[in-house]
Design goal:
The protein is of the alpha+beta class. It has seven helices and six strands. The protein has one domain.
């Protein structure tokens, strides 16, 4: 709880779940941001139920953050996101889905039997090397899920399958373009059409 987080930079990453100067410039009203970005989504740890249930259960104990071996969980700084609750900062690295955070949660805010998908990757053809007849397959090779999450289709480019994609971020880290041709779109506070469904669980 003690570390300081740059408020402007953290807000930028949470709203667009992406990094780079283009995002910062877009938020300042300078230049344009690549099409397809859906603002105001963020990445909760795996096993998080829908926001109302998550926020009602999370006690901000920080045990999930302490348990994360990748150290990619940080406390949310904005009240709208539940100040102090855990969110994934994708700039710090991908999630390995080790579920140490879920195992450490004593409050039922993270559950092993919940949907473990945190969001999904979004592809941007305008910067992708595969759109320029360059044989780049780094994102596909990096994906720990495999063809059920991401494929490169002849004549179409990168195809992301929301039912398979977990939003782990390995493809984003592997992307060699600048700006990156993939970004993570986290779950919205409530499900949107085309987003991975996150089932709720009844507690007796």
């Amino acid at each position: 709880m003690g570390e300081k987080v740059d408020r402007a930079g953290f807000l930028r990453r949470l709203f667009f779940v992406d990094s780079g100067t283009q995002a910062a410039r877009a938020l300042r009203g300078e230049g344009s941001y690549p099409t397809g970005r859906i603002p105001f989504t963020f990445l909760r740890p795996p096993g998080a139920p829908l926001e109302p249930q998550f926020l009602s259960r999370c006690t901000r104990c920080d045990l999930c953050r302490e348990a994360c071996p990748e150290k990619i969980l940080v406390p949310a700084q904005e009240p709208l996101m539940g100040r102090g609750t855990p969110v994934i900062d994708p700039d710090l690295g991908p999630c390995t889905l080790c579920l140490k955070c879920v195992e450490a949660c004593p409050d039922g805010a993270l559950l092993l039997d919940e949907d473990r998908r945190m969001g999904k990757a979004v592809w941007h053809a305008e910067t992708c090397l595969s759109s320029r007849i360059v044989a780049c397959v780094k994102c596909v090779e990096a994906c720990p899920v495999g063809p059920s999450a991401i494929q490169i289709l002849p004549g179409k480019g990168v195809e992301i399958y929301p039912d398979g994609c977990t939003g782990c971020g390995f493809c984003v880290r592997a992307c060699p373009t600048e700006p990156r041709s993939l970004h993570l779109q986290g779950r919205p506070p409530m499900p949107l059409r085309g987003h991975p469904p996150v089932p709720t669980r009844r507690h007796g």
